[in-house]
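Changelog-adjacent note: as of this version, every example in the card shows the full chain rather than a window. The one below runs 150 residues end to end.
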Amino acid sequence: MPVFFQVSTIAQTIQLSLAPVFMLAAIGQILNVLAGRLARVIDRARILEERVLGTESGADRARDVWELKLLDERMSIINAALFLSVSSAVMACVVIALLFIANIAKFHIGTWIALVFIVAVTLLICCLTAFMWEVRVSLRAIHVRKEILS
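Full-length structure tokens:
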């Protein structure tokens, strides 16, 4: 005969899983921002690549090549941030799954659940740090050139 769980047990597990679920919602928004930034960087890189290929030499070409290197660095940082945020989301999902498994099967794995949640938060912190780093790198490209200001 199948075992039926108390509604209160399931309700309590859902309550416990709310923090990781909110974390997943936040990670979704971060992923949206990162994907948007990556798309803009790629679009700008494509424009500059065409300009660099069409120009033989000169100060403008050197500036475009410099900016392409900067865009390449930004793409790498954004990709790392995307990997970290998705990894954090996976860990948050594992936390939610473990909460239900532990509650339904009466496993005493609270320490493991806490450790997985700590890993998820740590990955999220690393993602946000990479995002902050990418923003700082992007600021290098938006300064007005000194020869224009002179």
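Structural remarks: The chain has a mean pLDDT of 91.
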